[in-house]
Design brief:
The structure is a single chain. The chain is an all-alpha fold and 249 residues long. It is built from 10 helices and no strands. The radius of gyration is 17 Å and the shape is globular. The mean pLDDT is 83.
Length: 249
């Protein structure tokens, strides 16, 4: 591996993201793109690292009973096949990076404007909630599989804006959403005959984010101020997205 500092960056990203309930896929993609890794590796590496980080987070949320399965299942059922379809798509390099650049800009904006304070859940009829959950899950799942992110960074702020549930329930839901979408997306990629990944590189990166994720999950917001973490990470993601778009547009 030519750039060993990438391991340190992934380690730090995993600490920060896991401390606020995410996997870090968008920032993994940003770092890999910044260092010029081959584009066909980016999606697989980011999703594998996502799975490594959020698996433990999901266990913690499950242990503390923060999942409301009647609300989570409609999101996941639709998102899983859509993430698979998105992951199985063959995308040209220029198209991939243009879509990635636009997605990363959206991620940066969502990071800066995601609510951090508690919002009382909104009441509504079950039918409308089911439709909303299915629509959100399917759309974000497809985009997640296609680009190589878990989708939690899109899902969480939208759920906050919809007053979907309490912040803790939303964090747990986003974590589970990232996990199932990342697994489905990587399986979709593997179904593509052109799928290729450097498993040695993947192993190093996964070990790095596993260590970071363990630390971040335990530290949580007690050490890192969520607003500062999201602001600084958003700046990194925005910087990379602009560089990508300038190059490929």
């Amino acid at each position: 591996m030519e750039h060993w500092e990438v391991l340190l960056f992934f380690f730090m990203i995993a600490i920060m993201y896991s401390s606020v309930g995410f996997g870090g896929g968008s920032s993994y993609l940003a770092i890999l793109a910044l260092y010029g890794f081959e584009y066909h590796l980016l999606r697989a590496l980011a999703l594998l690292c996502n799975i490594t980080v959020v698996s433990f987070g999901c266990y913690i949320f499950f242990k503390h009973r923060h999942f409301k399965w009647k609300k989570v299942v409609p999101l996941a059922i639709v998102s899983i096949p859509m993430a698979y379809i998105g992951g199985s798509l063959r995308i040209e390099e220029s198209t991939f990076f243009i879509v990635l650049g636009l997605v990363l800009i959206s991620v940066a904006v969502l990071m800066w404007f995601q609510p951090l304070k508690s919002i009382e859940p909104s009441l509504g009829n079950n039918k409308s909630k089911l439709l909303v959950n299915s629509g959100l899950g399917g759309g974000i799942g497809f985009l997640s599989g296609m680009v190589g992110i878990g989708g939690g960074i899109f899902l969480a702020p939208l759920l906050h804006l919809l007053r979907w549930d309490s912040p803790k329930i939303i964090a747990a839901t986003a974590s589970f959403f990232i996990l199932v979408n990342s697994v489905s997306g990587i399986v979709g990629q593997m179904s593509n005959p052109e799928f290729n990944v450097d498993w040695k590189l993947a192993a190093f990166l996964m070990i790095s984010v596993f260590a970071g994720g363990q630390i971040g999950s335990r530290l949580g917001a007690a050490i890192f101020r969520p607003r500062v973490v999201k602001f600084l990470t958003g700046l990194l993601v925005l910087f990379v997205s602009i560089r990508i778009l300038v190059k490929y547009l």
